[in-house]
Amino acid sequence: MTEKVLEVKNLKTYFRTMEGTVKAVDGVSFDLYEGEILALVGESGCGKSITNMTIMGLVKSPPAIIEGEILYNGKNILELSKEDYRKLRGKEIGMIFQEPMSAFDPLYTIGYQLFEVCKTHLGLNKKDAKPKIIEMLKKVGIPEPEKRFDEYPHEMSGGMLQRIMIAMTLITNPKILIADEPTTALDVTIQAQVLNLMKNLQKEFNTSIIFITHDLGVVSELADRVHVMYAGKIIEKSDVYGIYETPEHPYTKGLLASRVIKEYKDRELPHIPGFVPKATNFPDGCRFAERCSFCTEKCQKVSPELIKTSEIHETACFLYGEDTNEKDN
Ligand SMILES: Nc1ncnc2c1ncn2[C@@H]1O[C@H](COP(=O)(O)OP(=O)(O)OP(=O)(O)O)[C@@H](O)[C@H]1O
Ligand SMILES: [Mg+2]
After folding, report:
1. Which of 37, 40, 111, 268 measures 20 to 30 Å from 207, CA to CA?
2. 45 lines ligand 1 (CB under 6 A)
3. Does ligand 1 have an atom closer than 6 angstroms to the CB of 114?
4. What pLDDT, in 10s, does the model give residues 30-61?
5. What residues sit around ligand 2, an ion, with C-beta below 5 angstroms?
6. 128 CB-near residues (< 8 Å, 6+ apart)
């Protein structure tokens, strides 16, 4: 295995609200290795974005309660000052979002905004920055980059802005890139282009990527490893092959089944029955128990920890080793 670039250890991010404490992230641990694409997958509200916003230092605490450790270069970055975190964010860890417009200021040209990044984080002047910016815009597939340099964000299409946001993030050559649903807002063909682009750039720069999505289909081509989240916890970890070919947790199996059946458009939309428990009121036992066809008394009482089921596979389910495959009917 290559070197670990980030270690997240027992991370908890809680929010106090009128309805009680929201346990958005509740004891999440994972490692990110050099040059890998790690996908974080799970239904809406399971804590994917908050996990990564906490890594980026973008969750204000207090009021939020943050516990655990995030080790980068051997240092717990949760202890960094605001100023040091800002530096880390610009240069070492980059993030791209679902909505590219939010990353740009509508009042300034694309060229100016990329220049600001080069000035702040690389100490470049205008003359040296411009060729670097043009080259980067070319790399992400922007046609006529010299012309685009002097244009404004509203003059770009959504797909183009997404590419420019990727260019803006990668221009400082960060070690880690966090991509939070970067293609969800794009139409399907543009989505595929942006995913390909990310994969190629990742190879070229050897960046480690955390790729967040609720769509298991998107990651099958892209990721090296996949972690599945449910209700604030990671419930299964493996490489792509392990998740797709030999899924172990009933929730992962359900997600995969939904994905397959979705391809038959005229059939009823599949779903895993029931709802994710409220983040203010998680049960003591397995958080998936309510929705699981195989749930036992123990599952309702005790919360399962991740256990190693093979060299690369971990699953948090007491029923591992038993048949937890839904029967076709
Ligand atoms: N500032 C906040 N105060 C209270 N609760 C919050 C806050 N931010 C997020 N949450 C809650 O934390 C939980 C996790 O949210 P998060 O945004 O990480 O989900 P997600 O997995 O990224 O979902 P999606 O796929 O919809 O983006 C949700 O229950 C959400 O409502
Ligand atoms: Mg999210």
Report:
1. 111
2. yes
3. no
4. 999 999 999 999 888 899 999 999 999 999 98
5. 49
6. 118
